[in-house]
Amino acid sequence: xxxxxxxxxxxxxxxxxxxxxxxxxxxxxxxxxxxxxxxxxxxxxxxxxxxxxxxxxxxxxxxxxxxxxxxxxxxxxxxxxxxxxxxxxxxxxxxxxxxxxxxxxxxxxxxxxxxxxxxxxxxxxxxxxxxxxxxxxxxxxxxxxxxxxxxxxxxxxxxxxxxxxxxxxxxxxxxxxxxxxxxxxxxxxxxxxxxxxxxxxxxxxxxxxxxxxxxxxxxxxxxxxxxxx
Length: 229
Prior knowledge:
There is one protein chain. By secondary structure, the chain is α/β, with parallel strands linked by helices. The chain folds into two domains: about 1-100, Thrombin, subunit H, CATH 2.40.10; about 110-225, Rossmann fold, CATH 3.40.50.2300. The chain is about 30% helix and about 35% strand. The protein is built from eight helices and 13 strands. Strand 10 (about 160) and strand 11 form a beta hairpin.
C-alpha cells in the first residue's frame, strides 16, 4: 500500500462512513484522507491489521470492500479491493482534477520526518528540500506513528534524545514494520550515543561532526531511489 500511496495523491477530506467488520456489527467512522487506492478512517480501535472491512459512505448505496493495512492510535489505513466503474465514480468526487490538485500534490511530496528535540534544522531542511523532499518536524515520540499514517513519510532522521526520552524503541518499531524499508537515520552530535545498538537494527548512525547535512540528504535520496526502482 505504501507504493500505491506514492503513485496516487492523497486528498484530505472529512466524510462520515459506516464501517462493518463483521456481519451485523457496524461502527461509525470518519474518513480523513482518501486516494484512488485507499483511505484513512478514524477511529481504529475496532479493527486489526489484516481485517477485511466493508465501508459505506453516508448518502451512498454502494459499498466498498477494503483490507486494513495499518492501524494507528487515531485510526486505520485500508486498501480498496477490486472496484467497478460505480466505485471509481464515487471516489472521483473526492479527488480533484489535475489542475485543482496542484497544491495538494505539492503537499504530498515524499516526506522526511525529522524527530528532533527542540530547535529547527534549517540547513538540513534546505538540503532535503533541494533533494526533492518535504520536511515534517516532530517533537514528540508519542506522535511519530500517527504522523507517519498521515503523511507520505519515506525516511526518518532522529536525534538520540527527544523530549527527555531515548528514541531507540520507536525507531526499532519503525524498522520492524515490514512495509517500512526506507532509511532510518540517527543524526546526533552527542558522544554517548550507543550507535552499535542502533546499527544492529539497520539504523544508520551519522555524527554531526563528520557528516554534513548535504551528505546526509544525498544518502537519504539514494535510499529512496533504490527502494523505488
